[in-house]
Structures are given as structure tokens and as C-alpha cells.
Design a protein that fits this description.
Elements: H1 11-25, E1 38-41, E2 44-46, E3 54-55, E4 57-61, E5 64-69, H2 71-75, E6 83-86, E7 91-94, E8 96-101, H3 103-109, E9 113-114, H4 121-134, E10 141-146, E11 158-159, E12 162-163, H5 166-171, E13 177-181, E14 186-189, H6 191-196, E15 209-213, E16 219-225, H7 239-255, E17 258-266, H8 268-279, E18 286-291, H9 295-301, H10 310-313, E19 315-323, H11 353-366, E20 369-374, H12 377-391, E21 402-405, H13 414-420, E22 423-425, H14 428-434, H15 438-442, H16 444-450, H17 454-459, E23 464-465, H18 477-486, H19 503-509, H20 512-516, E24 535-538, E25 555-560, E26 563-567
Parallel strand pairs: 1-6, 2-7, 8-17, 9-10, 10-13, 17-18, 18-19, 19-20, 20-21, 21-22, 22-23
Antiparallel strand pairs: 1-4, 2-3, 4-5, 7-24, 11-12, 13-14, 14-16, 15-16, 24-25, 25-26
Length: 569
């Protein structure tokens, strides 16, 4: 989709816009308008609205944007009580919309061991050992972020490049330890956690999961996909803990310029908790949520949880989430052909196709979007098959169902996205983070022809959105934006540069396209009069600065509904 303005403004906003236009056309007469609450001026405003792509200033009344134009035009809106933010040449854009992340997970990650930057198994052991010193016997020690492909040394002993639990069990004999892979699709557990989970050499992995064994048939501590539930902490988190997760996630997102967050799967219990926070006025950014729960719970709870713009526009529940496969990093992505580096495997189908088909019918009945995590080419093909069958029952209704990730595609599937009108909900930062080892998994040809094809999808008329899959990656919208326009990996190399987005396409993917992907383009995604005043101000112009200067960009202000929720010191 291209920069465009909404055609569904309210009559009041259209009347106001007409008054503003007529008054500013008068010869030297000051326009007679009611003062507003907030004016931003003296910068460059990229509106993502093709009717007026750029401006110098804007005016906000309450939570709504009422006018966009020149500095002189917006001066008429300034009264004694108006707060004026001087942009000083900085760039203002529509607030970033995180297109796919795990909101409570962002908060939880800040309450656990952070393993994102560890470069070896020895570093993991050291961090856990320090946590054991602070813990009481029996306390769970949890962490997230390790990724074996990013370690500089191979652990010894190892199975498929993964360490065995013995060194971890030795330093924590009385505390169960569960460390989640960066992708979220595998966990590492020590002996105590396996004991509490009843796991031994005779344990059978659940459908869609795998317990990795050593040569003697003993579990090494690695549990792929659904098998991870065997060793996960069983006790539910308290309400206070979950509220703390909301608080921490909000702080993290607002500091990164995010005004709306599309949550990729929460249970009804978690959604109810967030609703109570929203009803208390405690949500500081807007959430659009996908339900991820058992089939029985979906059947019972969907009708009562379909909310749009609840709590003054801060909470919507509009999607059903399933994962049809796992992740490429954990060898869990479901492929048409075997892994190049693990030829005995084609990955894992983590949710039965019949279960997803049942949810497709529920989505049609209750007016939800079906959102399916699909990373491997086999996973994407099966997902599109399910979508196509459901679309035939929809009587031509626009559904905007979503493939979450669409990470590795067989080229034959690309036209199907456009033909069906399926959203490709992608995460550009995965490309530059995972790129160095993707050809190892897929081989050079499959990686070049099928991995992270957002340029090809865009050229085929597909709506592509952006996000981070946080806490899998840092929730930084700027980092993922940079990845989408450069595809430059941490090693300095470019991952198939013919697939880059333009700067304007990348901004649209993080704003208007993301809003469209949740049926929210009438209220957000562009700085158009009548829409919500959700605005991010950046330290420099990401539409024009050289590629090498993009990483230095900082968030200066994050404004949600006309309220400054974050300000850089």
C-alpha cells in the first residue's frame, strides 16, 4: 500500500479541517480557531499521508490530531495553555507500531537473566552461578536469549552443537534452571528442572516437540518446541508479577518510540489482567492482541473478548494466534526439504493442521483475524492452504488474515499472498540477526531464493509489516527499520541486498501498513487530521541520512494520544 489518507474521518473532523483551510487562505487574516493542547513545530513532519506527505508543524487537541501544516499556519492554534514542543529541525513521524511482539514477554525478560549477549556456554554458566548465590534453595532461575549459532566457541561435550546439562546441574543442584532460546522455540534445563518435570530417558516427547538425547539415550537438557513445556515452571505468576511485566514492557516500548503494540499471543487470563490495567487507566501505549489458548477455551471465550478500542482506544482484541511450526535457529521450522546441516530433519509441525482449521472456522464465526506463525516453506504452504479454504467460505469479505514471520518461502507461494490478500507480518531485524547462519541451515540456493523476501512480496502487491518479535530481539523499531533498508548483518556483510525496502516503504511498514494489518488504519498509522495523536520524534531524519548514520538515531519524544509518555533526557 502507498502513503494515503483515510476516507473515513468523522464529520466533525472534516468540518474542522475545512475551517482551517479556509482561514489560512484568507489574506493576512488570523484564523479564528480554538487553541489546542499541543503544538509541534520547527521540524520535518513525515505524515505517511499521500495527501500531504510532509509538513513543518502540527496541532493536537485532546488525543486527536486536528491540523498539519506550516509553522505560520499552526501558530494560530497556540493559546496561553498550549504546550509547544520545538522540534529544532528533528523528524516527527506517526508513532511506531510494533507489528509482532510479545508484550508481557518484554516485561518478563527484564525480570530474568538476560542471555542475549553471551558468546559462550561458559558465560551462561557464570551468569547462572551468580544467580544461584542470590537464590534460596528451590527458587526457579529463569533466563532467555542464548543462541548457539552466536557463540564463538563450541561447547564440549555437545550434541548437534548444543551442550549437555551436567555443568549447569553441578552449579545448581537445588535450584531448577530453565533457560529459553533466543527464538523462544527451545529451552535448556538442568537436572533439577528435569526431575520436577518427571523427565528421564523413558520420557516421550509430546507431538510437535523433541527431547534431545546423547549417545547413551539420556536427555542432555535441550527441549525443542512443545517439549519445552515439560520442564517449564508450573506455578502461575502472581497478579503483582504480571502487573510488573506490564509496567516494565511499557517503559521499554515507549523509550523505543512505540505507541502501539500488536501482541502475538496471550491467554484469556493474561488478556483479562491487561484489561483490568486498561480499565484503571494504567496502559500507557495501545495494545492490539491475539488470543492464544486451548481450543476449548477459544470456543468458550472468543465471543466475550472481541473488543475494539476498549478503554478509550487503548485495548483491542482481534486475532487468534497459532504456531504451525518452530524456528529456524532451533531446527524447528517446518521445511519442504531437509535441513542442509541436519539432513535427517525437516523440522516440526507444532500444531495439528486440524486444530488450526478449527480455529479458522471460529475466526470466521466471531470476526477475528487468524494469525499463524509460519517460518519454514512447508509451514507457509500449509498455512496458505488453510487460509484459502476458509476464504472460500467468507463470501468475499475482507479478512486480512496474517502469516506471522513468512520467513522462508518457496517462490511458488509468493503470488498466493497477493491473490488472497494475506498480510505478511515480518520482522526485518531477524534477517540481519540470523543471516550469518541461515545459509548453513538452508543452503545457499534456498537462502537466496526464499529467505526474508520482503522486496519480492511488496512488488507483488502484498502488505508487509515490520516488528521485532520482542523479546526474541530488542524491541527497537529503529534497529528493525535499519535492517529493512540495509539488510546489513552484524558481521558487516549484506544479506542479499536486492531485497531491501526503500526508506518510505520501511516507514510505512512500521506505521500505516501495520495499522491496516489490524483494521486500524482509520485511527492511526499516519499523521492525518482526525486521527489519534500518536507521534514519535527522532533525533535525525531516517528518510535521508546515509545508511551508516542510521544506527545513531535516537528517540526524543514518544507521544500517545497527545500526551508525552517519553522524553529523552
Amino acid at each position: 500500500m502507498a502513503f494515503q489518507s483515510s476516507n473515513s474521518f468523522s464529520p466533525a473532523s472534516l468540518f474542522l479541517a475545512a475551517v482551517v483551510v479556509l482561514s489560512t487562505l484568507s489574506q493576512g487574516c488570523a484564523p479564528r480557531v480554538e487553541p489546542v493542547d499541543l503544538v509541534l513545530r520547527g521540524g520535518k513532519i513525515a505524515t505517511v499521508d499521500e495527501a500531504q506527505p510532509y509538513a513543518e508543524a502540527l496541532a493536537v487537541r485532546g488525543d486527536t490530531l486536528v491540523a498539519v501544516g506550516s509553522n505560520d499556519e499552526m501558530a494560530a492554534f497556540i493559546g496561553e495553555e498550549t504546550r509547544v514542543l520545538e522540534l529544532e529541525g528533528r523528524l516527527a513521524i506517526p508513532g511506531f507500531i510494533e507489528g509482532h511482539g510479545h508484550f508481557l514477554g518484554v516485561g518478563l525478560a527484564r525480570m530474568q537473566l538476560n542471555l542475549n549477549s553471551v558468546q559462550s556456554w561458559d558465560e551462561v554458566i557464570a551468569l547462572v552461578a551468580a544467580a544461584v548465590e542470590e537464590a534460596s534453595p528451590g527458587d526457579w532461575i529463569e533466563g532467555r536469549g542464548w543462541h548457539q549459532e552466536k557463540w564463538t566457541t563450541l561447547p564440549e561435550p555437545n550434541v548437534q552443537g548444543l551442550p549437555t546439562h551436567h555443568s549447569l546441574s553441578a552449579i545448581s543442584p537445588d535450584n531448577p534452571v530453565v533457560l529459553r532460546h533466543a527464538s523462544g522455540h527451545a529451552v535448556f534445563a538442568n537436572a533439577k528442572a528435569m526431575e520436577l518435570g518427571g523427565v528421564n530417558a523413558d520420557t516421550t516427547a509430546p507431538e510437535g516437540g523433541e527431547i534431545l538425547l546423547d549417545a547413551a539415550g539420556e536427555p542432555i537438557g535441550v527441549f525443542r518446541e512443545t517439549a519445552g513445556y515439560l520442564v517449564s515452571r508450573k506455578s502461575p505468576r502472581s497478579e503483582d508479577e504480571m502487573r510488573r511485566q506490564v509496567e516494565l514492557a511499557s517503559e521499554e516500548c515507549l523509550a523505543k518510540g512505540i505507541t502501539s503494540f500488536q501482541d502475538a499471543g496471550s491467554s484469556f487470563e493474561e488478556i483479562d489482567l491487561i484489561k483490568s490495567v486498561a480499565d484503571e487507566g494504567g496502559l500507557r501505549l495501545r495494545l492490539w492482541m491475539m488470543v492464544r489458548d486451548s481450543s476449548e477455551n477459544l470456543r468458550q471465550g472468543l465471543a466475550s473478548h472481541r473488543w475494539t478500542d476498549h478503554a478509550n482506544g487503548f485495548l483491542s482484541v482481534g486475532g487468534i494466534k497459532h504456531s504451525i511450526d518452530g524456528a529456524l535457529g532451533s531446527h524447528g521450522a517446518w521445511l519442504l526439504e531437509p535441513y542442509t546441516d541436519l539432513p535427517e530433519s525437516t523440522g516440526l509441525n507444532t500444531t495439528a493442521l486440524a486444530t488450526i482449521e478449527e480455529s479458522a472456522q471460529l475466526a470466521l464465526e466471531h470476526g477475528y483475524q487468524l494469525c499463524v506463525h509460519a517460518i519454514g516453506d512447508r509451514a507457509n504452504r500449509e498455512t496458505l492452504d488453510i487460509f484459502e479454504a476458509a476464504y472460500e467460505k467468507s463470501a468475499g469479505k475482507e479478512l486480512r488474515w496474517r502469516v506471522e514471520h513468512a520467513q522462508h518461502l518457496n517462490p511458488e507461494e509468493i503470488p498466493r499472498f497477493g491473490e488472497l490478500g494475506v498480510i505478511a507480518s515480518m520482522q526485518a531485524v531477524h534477517c540481519t540477526s540470523d543471516g550469518p547462519w541461515v545459509p548453513t541451515r538452508l543452503g545457499e540456493e534456498r537462502a537466496r531464493e526464499g529467505a526474508y523476501l520482503w522486496r519480492t512480496l511488496l512488488d507483488s502487491g502484498v502488505v508487509v509489516t515490520n516488528g521485532t518479535d520482542a523479546p526474541v530481539e530488542d524491541v527497537s523499531a529503529l534497529a528493525s527499520y535499519t535492517s529493512s533498508v540495509t539488510r546489513r548483518m552484524n558481521n558487516g556483510e549484506v544479506f542479499y541486498g536486492d531485497q531491501v525496502m526503500t526508506r518510505e516503504e520501511a516507514l510505512e511498514a512500521y506505521t500505516l501498513s501495520a495499522a491496516f494489518a489490524a483494521f486500524e488504519e482509520d485511527s492511526k498509522g499516519s499523521l492525518s487530521p482526525g486521527k489519534l495523536a500518536d507521534i514519535t520524534v527522532l533525533s535525525q531524519d531516517i528518510l535521508t541520512v546515509p545508511d551508516e548514520e542510521l544506527p545513531a538515531t535516537e528517540v526524543v519524544y514518544t507521544i500517545v494520544g497527545g500526551k508525552v509518555e517519553y522524553q529523552r533526557d
